[in-house]
Amino acid sequence: MGITLNLQIKELIILKYRSGIKQATIAKQLNLSRSVICKTIKLFHLRKSLVSLPKTGRPRKTTPRIDRKIKTLAFKNPFTTAVDIKAQLEEVNIGIHTVRRRLRETHNAFVC
């Protein structure tokens, strides 16, 4: 996954590029890699806009709050299985595999 730039930084990159400053110089001034500068300029020429496109893919089933709760339950009792954690999350209808994925995302070594 690449770096996400806000609109102001993208505008600054294009402004500096149009004023004749080299990409390497822009990268040093903004403390970004040259590839990020190059990609921003290329996408601007291609789309004629700096606005990011909507992201693709299915939305997450869990919210950040539920993710934190799963992590907390696992750290309170390291021997708790994903089935037990799912049972403790009665208000949310998620699967066991979702619980396991969230535990893996938190770099939790004990996923059962």
From TrEMBL:
GO molecular function terms attached to this record: DNA binding
Residue stretches making up the Paired domain: 7-90
Recorded superkingdom: Eukaryota
Name listed for the protein in its UniProt record: Paired domain-containing protein
A GO cellular component entry from the record: nucleus
UniProt KW keywords: Paired box
Gene Ontology biological-process entries: regulation of DNA-templated transcription
Principal place of residence: nucleus
Compartment list: Nucleus
Pfam families: PAX (PF00292)
Keyword Mitochondrion: no
InterPro entries (alphabetical): Homeodomain-like_sf, Paired_dom, WH-like_DNA-bd_sf
Presence of keyword DNA repair: no
Protein species of origin: Acanthoscelides obtectus (Bean weevil)
